[in-house]
Amino acid sequence: MGRAERILRLLADLATLARGGVVALVLLRVGEGPEALAGVVHLLLLGWTLDVLDGWLARASRRPSPLAAWDYPLDAGLAWAGLAYLVGAGLVPEGFAWSWAVGSLVLLLRYPKKSLSMLLQVPATFAPFYYAQKLAPEAFWEALIWAFLMLLLDGRRFLGVVLEFMEDAGLLASARRESRP
Prior knowledge:
Elements: H1 3-28, H2 37-61, H3 71-88, H4 94-110, H5 114-135, H6 137-168, H7 171-179
């Protein structure tokens, strides 16, 4: 492996480590009120930006980086940290959040599939942005513009994630079988 590939892998790992720091920063906002929502949305956008950057760098290096195994756990960490903030801010009822988290854990212990984990974290991922629509509209619009730009810049990768989900869930294989004559 050449020097450029080593540097790219190192930069990918630094982006991964930074994403772990963002998860910690979001968790430090737990207990702050709704007035902190815009800052939390900005932290989440930073975390997701680092996720995209990490992916670009890792793919450019053509080999998995040493911290590649932390990619998905940090994705989940961003989602659940955002939900924890919302609960601490009094925006999401504790009972609902605990029910969702425990129910998710039970389902994942029974059916340990990445696609199920991805599906269960969708509400946690999007909830901060949903609440920002009313409580921090400027941050909401920034997030919407960010999502649009990411789709323009890396839409093929997003489609790849959706296909990975469908394949892991068994949806893609059944669709292929049904489309055959």
